[in-house]
Amino acid sequence: MRYIILAILCTISLSASAQWWRGDFKKHVRYPQVAHVKDGSLKKFLANKPAFYNPKKLALPVIPRSQFNLEINERIVMRAAQHHMRFREYALASYKFSELAQIYVSENRLSEAKWYYLQSNYISKQQNDHQHTINNLVSLAMVKADLGDITQAQQDLTEARDLALSTGRAQDVKLIDGKIKFVQSNKTWLPKSELRYADAAEITAKSK
User: Fold this and answer.
1) Are 183 and 154 in contact (CB under 8 A)?
2) What is the pLDDT of residues 150-168, one digit of tens each?
3) Within 13 Å, how many C-alpha atoms sit on residue 203's CB side?
4) Signal sequence: where (predicted)?
């Protein structure tokens, strides 16, 4: 009895489902899809809408250079370099040493700048960072020239030129050639008389 009722229900449901028994499976005409209407009203509205501000006209604030700013920057870079050396991130430490040397050059503390350029150059050579090594050698040569050591300055520039030439850096070769001519044309280069060293600065501060 159960199966008879199930058969009757299936027959009723099939007869009521879209009249499948007609067998009307012919292909109907497919009309082309309606093209999307391109409405540029929003773009025109945004283009004609006046801007509240123009970011290009906003100038970044220029912080005046002072001894306090240099000392703060020196501490920040020094801590970053110590952090990278502690965790053996030597490549990053090399760049921080160069940045620290640039700060000392701006303060005319050339002996300290020379030492940090040497450290950075030593690490960059071990890391095979040729571009950074070239930059370090050029900067180191100019510091040595300011200190009056023209011979070593020319040696550093020659080493930087050979490295740039071997690695296919034509732009760096051109730049180094200009530095070499500049150093050679100033054979009577006098060392800077007012050199600031860390020890001398501390003694002066204590005496005050």
Assistant:
1) yes
2) 999 999 999 999 999 999 9
3) 5
4) 1-18
Distance CA 125, CA 129 (A): 6
Alpha-carbon span 97 to 118, nearest angstrom: 9
Write down all domains in the chain, each with its CATH number in brackets. 67-187 (1.25.40.10)
Q: How far apart are CA 150 and CA 160, in angstroms?
A: 15
Neighbours of 67 (CB within 10 A): 8
Residue 172: C-alpha distances to residues 99, 126, 156 (Å)? 20, 21, 14
User: Which tens digits make up the pLDDT trace of 49-91?
Assistant: 665 555 555 555 666 677 788 888 899 999 999 999 999 999 9
